Structures are given as C-alpha cells and as structure tokens.
Amino acid sequence: MIQNLKWIYRAWRYRLRLERQEIAWLLCNLQAGQTAVDIGAHKGAYTWWMANRVTPAGRVFAFEPQPDLANQLRTLVSSRGLEFVKVEQMGVSRFETEMQLRVPARGNSPGASFENTRDALGGQPVSVHVTSLDQYFVPLVQPIHLIKCDTEGHELQVFRGGERILRTHRPLLLFECEARHRGAGSTGEVFNYLAELGYSGSFFCPSGIRPISEFDEASHQSSPGSTGYVNNFVFIHESAS
Description:
Layout: H1 2-18, H2 20-29, E1 35-39, H3 45-54, E2 59-63, H4 67-79, E3 85-88, E4 91-92, E5 97-103, E6 124-131, H5 133-136, E7 144-149, H6 155-160, H7 163-168, E8 172-176, H8 187-196, E9 199-205, E10 208-211, H9 217-220, E11 232-237
Parallel strand pairs: 1-2, 1-7, 2-3, 4-6, 7-8
Antiparallel strand pairs: 5-6, 8-11, 9-10, 9-11
C-alpha cells in the first residue's frame, strides 16, 4: 500500500513539478490503444503516465536494468492489475549481450550507466542482460508509437539498436541527452544520426519547446541543475508533419 502511494506521488511530482512540459507532451501524444516503451524506467514515473494514457487497450514495455528497481516496479504493476504493462529487468543497447552497469555508490540511482559518466565512476559494477529494440520486438504485432529513453549517455546505442523500428514504425522519441554523459562524444552525434533517419528535433526549455536549430550545447548545458539547463529532447519523424 505504501509503495503504491509512493509511486503515485512520484508520478504526480514529475507531472506537476520536475518535468511538467515533458509529461504534458507525452500525455498529448499518446492515445488509448497505442504502444509505448519506457527505456530506463527507474522508479516508474513515466511508466505510470504511459499506462494511464494507453489504457488496457494498449501496451507499455518498461526496461530497467537495476535489479532492485525493476523488481519493485514489477511488483507495483502487478499489485495494480496492470496486465498490459510489462516490466523487463534488462538494459537496452545496440546488441543483445551482457554488459556492466555502473551503479553510483549511493545505491539505486538515475545516474546508473553503461557509460563512464561522472556519476557512475567509482560505482559498483553490476552485470546485466542487455537487449536491442530490434531484437526484443520480433515479431511485433502492434506498431510502437512512442519511446522514452533515459540511459545516461547510452542513447545513441539504444537508437542504433532500434534502427529497424525507427525506420518502419517511426515512433515519437522523448529522450535525455547530455554532453557530460557522452564522454568524448557530443549531443550532436545523436541528433545527426536521427536526422539521417528522417527525424527533426526540439528541446524543452523554460520558455517552452524550441526547435533543435536553436540548441547550443555550450550555453544550454554549461551548468547542470540551473534554471536554463536543457537535457530533454523530442524528435518526430518528418512523415508525421
């Protein structure tokens, strides 16, 4: 009972405070009967709203590699009878394999990553099974409408591993992308890859949603935690325009 209340509280905290624009966008772009994918589900705030929106007529697939968090979310989903929500304790990358997930020393965290990010350095390595979107969703009866991805710097590998789906189903993409998590890479690598597949992007900022052409990594991501810091993006295929 208490864990259920915490889940609901977290979901509403994201909607009303932490990521208001992102959740509002998600709710506007999901409908009953559609299929949504939550990659890096963590404690399930986005999973909650996806399930709320697609209803039992749709499907939600939530991927969380941290064992404790995945088991907790699976228990919550089961306790509420959400049979149309499937929680997978695995990571998502370019290929199906085993990978080392670095979990920050403070324990289960949104900072856990397959990359050598600042938050993950010095963390406890945990071996986890990893799949790719193209491998997991074979066969796929119903098209995927929306993918949310929060993988702390691993998003390019996630999208590369789902290229078939991105080309054929052309799902809406909502994802976090930060230069500080990309190591020697840049956010531009991710954006350029998606552009090659026919996607155009926008980013969330205090003034609303702005086109990706106005994004400047040096200024928009210079001070993590500041009011004007930008880390969440939406990419929509040109065919949806």
